[in-house]
Design a protein that fits this description.
Blueprint lengths: L1 E6 L4 E9 L5 E10 L1 H5 L6 H23 L8 E7 L3 H18 L3 E5 H12 L6 E6 L4 E8 L2 E7 L5 H11 L6 H10 L23 H14 L4 H34 L6 E4 L6 H14 L3 E2 L3 H4 L3 H13 L29
Parallel strand pairs: 1-4, 4-5, 6-9, 9-10
Antiparallel strand pairs: 1-2, 2-3, 6-7, 7-8
Helix pairs in contact: 2-3, 4-11, 5-6, 5-7, 6-8, 7-8, 8-9
Length: 353
């Protein structure tokens, strides 16, 4: 089956065509991603109103390009999928409304995809991963460990009690004058920095609940930066490296606890640990989790970095998975700013939870 996927929940406008065969194997035929980084850079973060307008301006063209690159015409599609949330509501409305218009005019089924579920299912597009698996979802807005038991069936094992990891990277970058988006900038600086120069805290280390905390670490970096000001280039590199090392240690420790919790609650081991979301692009975090995999014997699955950050292929794939299971949505489906994967978890649907 062939599915068009549309992603407009944040600052990437993207459309993709993905194929899924009867064995559940996926293939990306096209994945056009236009980032609005330049539009938002001057403000040091995403401005929702600017993002929504930018999506309106380019989305039609991005969809045409995705069809062209895949060499697929509208009539060959089996369904239209769009991210219906969670995200910046203006952008979500643009993508979902476009998908509804296409579904209606073409007479094709519509699938309203949860953006977080799309991140969560991406490892099933790139690798053969069976349910249940342990998911570390780490992005700009979310940091969670989840048991993925099946399509639409998630149990949240842990979450951040303050900031998301991507948010901490972005705020650290801003504080050090590295611009937006912060993750790749901090990682680049960290590569040639001294990770042992500053002994930043490892929040929640050893705690029995697989939760995360970033705000204390962020404050520690800020205090050190203020103490050293004005910062030399080497100070910035060392601050980034020491910050990133603390994040890696925390992620590995928390994920180890999450794995234990998974085994206790599910009574079985996950088929794999998969990582998803923009932060999963970070090489130091990937290496840390590889070590955890070697230590625990758990298979680690990490999609290529370009599929970890927001993209249309993950939406198309989640749409294809749902369509294959016979799940579609009516044209009256609503866009959602908040849309937790595990609605039963405490505080579910609040920012970052
Ligand atoms: P959400 O998926 O929670 O709605 P989002 O869509 O904005 O949020 P993504 O696009 O999935 O998030 O990820 C973007 C985040 O990932 C940003 O915070 C960015 O700094 C971070 N990020 C991207 N690349 C890296 C990297 N190499 N290292 C660390 N963080 C990174
Ligand atoms: Mg983004
Ligand atoms: Fe995302």
């Amino acid at each position: 089956m062939l599915v068009l996927g549309i992603e407009t929940t944040c600052d990437e406008t993207s459309a993709a065509i993905v194929a899924r065969n009867e064995d559940g194997e996926g293939e990306i035929l096209s994945n056009v991603v236009l980032s609005q980084i330049a539009e938002h850079a001057a403000y040091g973060g995403v401005v929702p109103e600017i993002a929504a307008r930018a999506h309106v301006e380019v989305l039609d063209h991005i969809i045409e390009q995705a069809l062209e690159e895949a060499n697929v015409r509208f009539d060959r599609l089996d369904g239209i999928a769009a991210a219906a949330g969670p995200g910046l509501i203006g952008g979500v409305i643009v993508g979902l409304t476009t998908a509804k218009a296409l579904a209606l005019s073409l007479g094709k089924p519509l699938v309203a995809v949860n953006h977080l579920e799309a991140h969560a299912l991406t490892p099933r597009l790139t690798d053969q991963v069976t349910f249940p698996y342990l998911l570390l979802l780490a992005s700009g807005g979310h940091t969670q460990l989840l048991a993925v038991r099946g399509l639409g069936d998630y149990v949240r094992l842990g979450t951040t009690i303050d900031d998301a990891i991507g948010e901490a990277f972005d705020k650290t970058a801003k504080m050090l004058g590295l611009g937006y988006p912060g993750g790749p900038a901090v990682e680049a600086q960290a590569m040639s920095g001294d990770a042992a120069r500053f002994a930043f805290p490892r929040p929640l280390q050893g705690r029995p609940d697989p939760n995360f905390s970033l705000s204390g670490l962020k404050t520690a970096v800020r205090l050190e930066a203020e103490r050293l000001a004005p910062l030399a280039a080497k100070d910035i590199r060392d601050l980034c490296a020491s910050f990133q090392a603390a994040v890696v240690d925390m992620v590995v420790d928390r994920t180890r606890v999450g794995l234990r919790r998974f085994r206790e609650t599910a009574g079985q081991s996950p088929s794999a640990l998969v990582i998803a979301g923009g932060v999963a692009a970070n090489l130091a975090i990937r290496r840390g989790l590889q070590r955890l995999g070697a230590e625990t014997g758990l298979r680690i699955v990490m999609p290529p970095a370009a599929l970890c950050t927001d993209n249309g292929a993950m939406i198309a794939w989640a749409g294809a998975e749902r369509l294959s299971a016979g799940i579609t949505d009516g044209l009256d489906v609503s866009p959602r700013a908040r849309w937790p994967l595990d609605p039963n978890a405490p505080g579910a649907g609040k920012q970052g939870l």
